[in-house]
Amino acid sequence: MSGMLFTCPHIVFLSQSTLTGMSQLCGTRLCHEIAHAWFGLAIAARDWTEEWLSEGFATHLEDVFWAKAQQLAPHEAREQQKLRACLRWHRLQDEVQNSPEEMQVLRPNKEKTGHVSDSGSSVIRHGLNPEKVFMQVHYLKGYFLLQFLAKTLGEDTYFSFLRKFVHTFHGQLILSQDFLQMLLENIPEEKRPELSVGNIFRDWLESSGIPQGIFLTQGLSTGLQHCRQILNHLSHRRSLLLRDISKYKDRST
Ligand SMILES: [Zn+2]
């Protein structure tokens, strides 16, 4: 959940600051919070260190909801999602370069995830670290993992599985393996070459840095090209604007 919004079942509370800014930003924030009705509320992480189970899913679903809300045609939705993937990719690169490695791991407690100590308490690492509040690694890496799974298995297969998953686990607290095990059990082996819970833990959830699977995500390279074109276009427009401003200044002095 972002600091600006708070949701509880069937109700979304919005602060005024959420509704400022461009409609695009406002709409995607709303979609993100609506997605938390399923991931974060109806189904939540059993161990708080696995924050990606709320934030990764909400970030992945926010694009799907936002495309529906705008009534985009499938090809327009794909274009928009590619562009958003590209922006998130830049953000992730930036965060990975500027944060301590141990804070880039989505399942930091590994096989001890979900365990409670003898005293009955469970310790949340970095829970009080103020830096973590501003980090989006859990949102971004979680999002890219789900995007990777959806692309690898096929979006129709993935989303029909997701409906089944929500139905099965509604009202429960889960660990990463609950989701991954059920996903892989539901997909015939020939459709998921080299995908196993162990591999996903190793490559995506228990390592720092950028998972290599991101590069295999179909469409990310074309998305990056698209993004680069837009950035070039914007920087060209900026230089023209600056030139016009300096001309105007020369004239007025
Ligand atoms: Zn959130």
From TrEMBL:
<dbReference type="GO" id="GO:0005730">
    <property type="term" value="C:nucleolus"/>
</dbReference>
<protein>
    <recommendedName>
        <fullName>Peptidase M1 membrane alanine aminopeptidase domain-containing protein</fullName>
    </recommendedName>
</protein>
<dbReference type="GO" id="GO:0070006">
    <property type="term" value="F:metalloaminopeptidase activity"/>
</dbReference>
<dbReference type="InterPro" id="IPR014782">
    <property type="entry name" value="Peptidase_M1_dom"/>
</dbReference>
<dbReference type="GO" id="GO:0008270">
    <property type="term" value="F:zinc ion binding"/>
</dbReference>
<dbReference type="InterPro" id="IPR027268">
    <property type="entry name" value="Peptidase_M4/M1_CTD_sf"/>
</dbReference>
<feature type="domain" description="Peptidase M1 membrane alanine aminopeptidase">
    <location>
        <begin position="21"/>
        <end position="204"/>
    </location>
</feature>
<dbReference type="InterPro" id="IPR033577">
    <property type="entry name" value="AOPep"/>
</dbReference>
<dbReference type="Pfam" id="PF01433">
    <property type="entry name" value="Peptidase_M1"/>
</dbReference>
